[in-house]
TrEMBL record:
Taxonomy, superkingdom: Bacteria
Organism field: Roseobacter sinensis
PANTHER family: ACYLPYRUVASE, FLUTATHIONE S-TRANSFERASE
Protein's name according to its UniProt entry: Fumarylacetoacetate hydrolase family protein
A GO MF label: hydrolase activity
Domain Fumarylacetoacetase-like C-terminal: 27-227
Alphabetic keyword roster: Hydrolase, Metal-binding
Length: 227
């Protein structure tokens, strides 16, 4: 095999609670998957076909620090369940989807809301608002053997001790098995893929110096400081 003409990019990994790391291949994010959040964003909460956007693997950041990004004055927090796959395929049946899950974690989908809004008005992709550096703070992943497959449980986020987001995983419009099955109809899923499963209502702006504490019952807690 020919030598690389540039240094090979580093494989991006997420730590796991039991030791070792989880290498990330792709990051899929579902939009408006909690009815109350759909309403607060100005959309109909009725169950419509799901839609996804993507972040980059190296956007996921376990450091506990979120650098306030450039070219924005309106950065929002979104707490989400992260689903980590150990295998994949095409056209995965819903009743077999959870067989492909390695584990779960707590994550944040940080969003340059002003830039995302501009892109929406222009009919352009959202990546400038979603896929910037370190836009996906994430905690250690926990294997299915420890946490099972959480389909209910409190999901919340507080900023400087003030409750902001509050919901339950059972409020997800599209459940984890359905997300995996739907994605596999359009993409070939594989080990290392992760899915960020949507956020409850209460998204709001953060400022430098703020401390965000995100938690999902039975999965874990994540503390991130805006720097």
């Amino acid at each position: 095999m020919a030598d690389h003409v540039i240094p090979a990019p580093q494989v991006h990994v997420i730590p796991t609670e039991g030791g070792g790391t989880f290498p990330v291949r792709r990051v899929y994010c579902i939009g408006r998957n909690f009815a109350a959040h759909a309403v607060e964003m100005g959309h109909d909460p009725d169950r419509e076909p799901p839609f996804f956007f993507q972040k980059n693997p190296n956007n996921l950041d376990p450091s506990g620090a979120f650098p306030y990004p450039p070219h924005t004055s309106d950065v929002h927090h979104e707490v989400e369940l992260l689903v980590a796959l150990k295998s994949g395929g095409r056209n995965i049946p819903v009743d077999q989807a959870l067989d492909h899950v390695w584990g779960y974690g707590v994550s944040l989908d940080m969003t340059r809301r002003d830039l995302q809004g501009q892109m929406k008005k222009m009919g352009r992709p959202w990546e400038i608002g979603k896929a910037f550096e370190r836009s996906g703070p994430v905690g250690p992943l926990r294997p299915v053997a420890d946490v099972g497959h959480p389909d209910h449980g409190h999901i919340a986020l507080a900023v400087n001790g003030e409750p902001r987001q509050d919901g339950d995983l059972n409020q997800m419009i599209w459940k984890v098995p359905e997300m995996i099955s739907y994605l596999s109809e359009y993409f070939e899923l594989a080990a290392g893929d992760v899915i960020m499963a949507g956020t409850p209502s209460g998204v709001n702006a953060v400022q430098r110096g703020d401390v965000m504490v995100a938690s999902i019952e039975g999965v874990g807690e994540l503390t991130v400081t805006v720097v």
